[in-house]
Specification:
The chain is α/β, with parallel strands linked by helices. The chain has two domains: about 350 residues, no CATH class; about 50 residues, no CATH class. Helix content is about 50%, strand content about 10%. The chain has a five-stranded parallel sheet with strand order 2-1-3-4-5, sandwiched between helices. The protein has a two-stranded antiparallel sheet with strand order 6-7. The chain is globular. About 35% of the residues are buried.
Length: about 400
Amino acid sequence: MKTLYELDSRIMQERISFSKNILGPIFYEFCHLLHEEVNNNYNHDTDIILYMARDGLRLRYLYQLYRQSNNLKCKLVEKDFYISRFCCAKSCLYTDFDYVFDFIMTTEHSSSFTEIFESIIKAQDLSQNFRDGCKQGELYIEKLKNRYQESYWLKSYFLEHNIRLKKYLDDLLEGKQKIILVDSGGSGTTQGMLMRSFSQYEWIGLYFYAKSRPKNNSNNAHLKHILGVSSDEIRHNKYPRSCIFSHSLLIEAVLKIDFPSTEEYQYNEGKVMPINGIASESTIAPNLNDKNPYFLGIIEYFKEQKQFDSNKIHNKANEAYKHLFRLIKFPRKSELSMMDCSTSDSPEVLKKSKELKSFQAKRSLVKTSPWRSGQTTLEFPLPIARLIQLLKIWEHF
């Protein structure tokens, strides 16, 4: 995938223009709503905002720029919180084994967790032939769970990670009791693990977008404590803000920074710190080395806003969402390159091939695509693509 320097200049300008005119008003409204939420509903003495690295760091950057433009101040303490789902699972496993283990085995991190278990088991010579007679699957997973209950070394490993996260949190919070997490969005799985293992704190999630949440499930009690500030699948389940959930990788591409994910913590001069350190502000800020130029366009929009007018902010965001809805749900072929946010280190949004494909092959590509409407436009003549998109035929493939 080409960097910004290598991108075709036409595509680069299209993406910057798109992000300035469409994503700019949407993110500006997010900052406006976030400011209203934290200043009207939270307390300086007891509450703190934690921006979750990595995506949350750019949301913090935008929120600070919004406040500077409007001469506003946030009444809460704000800090960056370096954590990832993988890191959180390692740190919470000791105190909540069944929930965390069962969850992590359904994610892309399952093989990494399996490797951790196997390496510790082999290091202690508990079973050199642990896999003998047992292939990867439910039986093997059950065997891992049983071995954990028997192994002092496995428990010690995950206890140490739990202790480090606890100390890292204690240093960050400085006595605050209510934690407002700010991040790009999803279903709050990291927040859920934190709430269960660190229940001495009150956890609130203010995300850019929030997916639908199942009801009456004791394992998902955290879902009552998250809010999609810009788009929430419960509150915005129809036109036009629902479009985000059909191409959420676009939001992730805007906020992604060139900095490694935090996988664990280490002691550094008596303090617990992320193992990869802290991202510099120059890394968080827009720069010409970004693999996608979307953030540059959003910053341009923010810098041009001079007046604080709540009605205008909401109206511009609503109009932008209407345009975004059309672009995501019913894109033209000429617009695909503008909306394709694939990079070499992110999921492939549109799978391109010059080979002739059968209908079955095209159907499979659409069904597995993270942006189904875009893949449909790519695969079929426009009239057929529009029929498929209108009827959402892929749901029946």
